[in-house]
Amino acid sequence: MPAAPERGKANRSVLEILGEALGLPPSSLRLLSGEASRDKTVLVPLPPAEVASRLASRVIVSP
């Protein structure tokens, strides 16, 4: 269930979920913009190709 957008709960949830998907602690990610928006920009301390590779390995495609 998504966190309510109150007192930063939703933003923390986004960083936790993204960190888990990337195999990184949420504390290593930084929300750059979108604190009060549905659209977020997050700084990830990995090269873009590594981010894409890690996320692609987590995607499950059903037949």
What can you tell me about this protein's structure?
A hairpin with a 7-residue loop joins strand 1 and strand 2. The longest helix is centred in the N-terminal third of the chain and has 14 residues, at 9-22. A two-stranded antiparallel ribbon has the order 1-2. The mean pLDDT is 89. The chain is globular and about 35 Å long. The protein has one domain. The chain is of the alpha+beta class. The chain is built from two helices and two strands.
In DSSP terms (H or I, runs of 4 or more residues), the helix count works out at 2
Strand count: 2
- Helicity, as a percent range: 25-40%
Overall pLDDT: 89
How far from one another are the termini? 26 Å
Largest sheet: 2 strands, antiparallel
Number of domains: 1
Low-confidence stretches: none
Write down the overall geometry: globular
Q: What integer value in Å does the Rg equal? A: 13 Å
Task: Please report which band the strand proportion falls in: under 5%, 5-15%, 15-25%, 25-35%, 35-45% or over 45%.
Answer: 5-15%
Main sheet strand line-up: 1-2
Secondary structure class reads alpha+beta
Topology:
Elements: H1 9-22, E1 30-33, E2 41-43, H2 48-58
Antiparallel strand pairs: 1-2
Overview in brief:
The chain has helices at residues 9-22, 48-58; strands at 30-33, 41-43. The protein is of the alpha+beta class. The chain has one domain (9-58).
Distinctive features:
2 helices; 2 strands
